[in-house]
Design goal:
single chain, five-stranded mixed beta sheet, three-stranded antiparallel beta sheet, 12 strands
Length: 224
């Protein structure tokens, strides 16, 4: 199995030009349909957000609490008598009562992001992701519907539309940055991870900065 460090080296060597070529070949234009920001049926919106991205969004409004921005990724949690309980390895953007991203708003069928300038990398790069190898695993981002060179395209009605070269290159830079960040986070998580006893009704999130409570406060840091 390829080590995370070797994958990180490969991500750092990715050609922005090659990624942009692939994006341009597939084609994309955001139609602002909001499908990537909303929940679907019983499935809530689950966009991964890194700890520093949570803090960047919180800086937009002094009233924002950590929980206003992010929630524990539900994968790995169980539904207890008092709500979710257990441990998970990521943060997801917070959702509203309908399962939609709390930062999504819609006006007459046209969607918008209220934190667009500070949106996480996964939002900046949707519906694309980078492939570092032929055996790269799938992602919980919707079905892969196209692949060109190092780029996969996930379900989105905006695919196949002409994209200006400058926008393709901007997307390519963000895709490379995301691939690097995901691997850096995974390595830091591996180094920071320490098993903890989870109390009934408690949720613990292990991230790159240590173990945290659901409100983002540190439960056990990597330096303790």
């Amino acid at each position: 199995m390829t080590s995370l460090e070797a994958e990180l080296d490969r991500a750092r060597e990715l050609s922005v030009e090659a990624i942009a070529d692939a994006v341009e070949s597939i084609g994309f234009e955001c139609t602002r349909c909001g499908a990537c920001c909303r929940g679907h049926g019983e499935d809530e919106h689950t966009a991964t957000v890194f700890p520093d991205e949570v803090r960047e969004i919180r800086e937009l409004d002094p009233a924002y609490d950590w929980r206003d921005v992010a929630r524990p990724m539900p994968y790995g949690l169980e539904e207890g008598s008092d709500g979710p309980t257990g441990a998970t390895l990521e943060w997801a953007l917070a959702t509203d009562g309908c399962g939609d991203c709390v930062f999504y708003e819609e006006d007459d069928g046209v969607g918008a992001c209220t934190v667009h300038a500070n949106r996480p990398l996964i939002c900046r790069t949707y519906p694309f992701s980078v492939v570092l190898g032929d055996d790269a695993p799938g992602e919980p981002m919707g079905e892969v519907v196209d692949r060109e060179g190092p780029v996969r395209a996930h379900e989105c009605e905006g695919l196949g539309r002409e994209i200006p070269r400058a926008e393709a290159e901007e997307l390519a830079r963000a895709l490379k940055r995301r691939a690097i960040r995901e691997l850096e986070e995974a390595i830091a998580l591996r180094e920071a991870y320490e098993p903890v006893d989870v109390d009934p009704g408690e949720v613990v999130v292990h991230d790159s900065e240590g173990s945290k409570r659901a409100d983002g406060t540190v439960r056990r840091s990597r330096t303790e």
